[in-house]
Amino acid sequence: MNVEFYEKIWMxxxxxLLALFLGTIVIGAASSAVHPPGKLETVDPTKLxxxxxxxxxxxxxxxxxxxxxxxxxxxxxxxxxxIEVPANRPVTFRLTSSDVMHGFQxxxxxxxxxxxxxxxxxxxxxxxxxxxTIGCNEYCGVMHHNMVGKLIAKEAK
Amino acid sequence: xKGRFALAGSxxxxxxxxxAVASFMGVLQALSIADISFPRRDESLFYVSVTAHxxxxxxxxxxxxxxxxxxxxxxxxxGRVVGKAAAWFAFVMSLAxxxxxxxxxxxxxxxVLYTFYPPLQAKPSFYIGATLLVVASWIWGGVMxxxxxxxxxxxPGVPAPLAIHGMIAxxxxxxxxxxxLAVEVVGMLIPWSLGxxxxxxxxxxxxxxxxxxxxxxxxWLLPAYVLWYTVLPKVAGGKLFSDSLGRMVFILFVLLSTxxxxxxxxxxPGISSGWKLAHTVLTYAVIYPSLVTAFTIVAxxxxxxxxxxxxxxxxxIRKLPWGDPFFASIALAMIAFxxxxxxxxINAAYAMNGMIHNTAWIQGHFHVxxxxxxxxxxxxxxxxxxxxxxxxxLRFRALAITQPYLWILGMALFSTSYHIAGIRxxxxxxxxxSLNGEQGAQWHTLTVIAAVGAVVLLVSALCYVTVxxxxxxxxxxxxxxxxxxxxxxxxxxxxxxxxYGLWTVVAIVLILLAYGYPIVHLLMQARYGSPPFRPF
Lengths: 157, 536
Ligand code: HEM
Ligand SMILES: [Cu+2]
Ligand SMILES: [Cu+2]
Hints:
The structure holds 2 protein chains of 2 kinds. Chain A is an alpha+beta fold. Chain A is about 15% helix and about 35% strand.
């Protein structure tokens, strides 16, 4: 292929730029554990009422001191509501839906994940103290915009 | 309409009609989101409207324009469309399908949005109608490839005209992409909506949807690139800087546009972060051909500006024909892509995605990319095609030349506001930015500005439709201007980029590598299906 001198410079510059972008992402993924949810765990969406965990959504402290929030998304509400968690501590969310897909987004934070019936979405994040709005950001029916919850992150005394 | 272009013209006519209807819906949606009331504003109509607007714009307006453009380019570049009977059959079939789906949407029975994620369930006529449109587009692709092969037999050893090369790449992408769609719709959604199977796996369906959904954007973009590479330098009065880089770019898209769908599923469960990272790498690779395009096109325009007497580092820019409706549309579409591409790189960044996923940022993003880079290119393409196909001069030239500038102005207001609102956390696809009525103070001003932008966009859309319809029906008859394509500074040479069969095989291998393991792994789990829901 005949490629001009300036084209060559540009092509190398483009390659360099993309390598830089990717490098940042890969290094971020490797070193500071910036990971999106990646777990494969299934659950029967029609039997959540009998499920040991999702029949009782709520905030729980595990034996090792870590905090787990089990959230059920259903048209058009999140349970529990409000969600009260300790601030400045890693909180692990375990999320599923009993009907259609929903989004779970804590406004103003990076907590943003899909709730998909049949699957458990798990991710960990910590919050600064404050009150946050939770919005459903996946269309889930005629009252989708109405599907709002609240999260309160409290500083430990 | 001259007989030769009847096929192309009919397709472009449908495309314009769909665009006109969907534009009105878009404005009402923007008003609704901003809580500006109007008669008959209500929740269920809003979601019906978003479904119709998304399908009409993203699937009907684009696909019909692309099919029409393809037929016109085949007539002009290859001197033939082989299999016209099949092409007309496909046209009727696609119309029947589109009408079927549209009726189902407008009756409020299929308010599932254009992404139709199960377990939301539409009526079978919605899925079957969409399938007819897609199958018809496969026939279009077959007719185009047959026309190319017939030309190829008479012209051995010569590289295909660049415009045809670009359309072939578009068609290959479309076949690879719609294979995923067919699995989802024919294999899963239709049997489920007919009640033949009781449940569906929403994640598996969604994964196949995004196998289709990302290359879909390159199916829209490549025909726009065809206009940029082959027509724009000519209209600007210059030459294409590099033909062989253009050929490489189109093939890179064939290879890289499909195996990247997980970047739409970063925050989904069930797909491991390693595979998400792998798709991220390929996603960044697919930025590369667009960067090369930026260089080639801007260099071609510089050649044109200097041939027109422009001097100095930037003096050539002023010499370009900014008062030509085609040129202005495409040039502004390209400028929009600088912003759109930058936003896209953020969406694809594994860790930043969580900030904007499914927020208003997304509607801001795709109205710049598909709505402007592609949409405005197609509008400009219409100004170029119509006089050449019909032998009628553009009517209301003043409207035609104002239109792209209005579009950019409207889109700047609309899209910038939604981008910012998205960063501040406004969810997308909401009837009202005050959500349950108690939120939204932080988003209100932004959504009002977006609504003002939407009104400007509607005015621009109406200018476009008026010019197109008036030209078609009442433009002054005369000698049709010739279809002229840009010559290349260096003449085209046959190269490895012309080996379509080989590249298709490589593309399939890449797709299998990127999707094979994660899908099989998913299918091997104990999974629980979902029954249908119709909360609309
Ligand atoms: C008159 C110009 C237009 C206006 C005022 C407009 C406005 C809107 C609005 C307000 C939404 C709803 C966004 C949301 O709530 O998430 C929307 C959605 C959408 N628009 Fe447009 N739009 C216009 C043109 C276009 C064009 C040219 C295209 C593509 C070619 C397009 C494609 C879409 C798509 C795909 C959706 C998504 C529907 C969904 O989320 O399911 N729009 N538009
Ligand atoms: Cu929801
Ligand atoms: Cu929702």
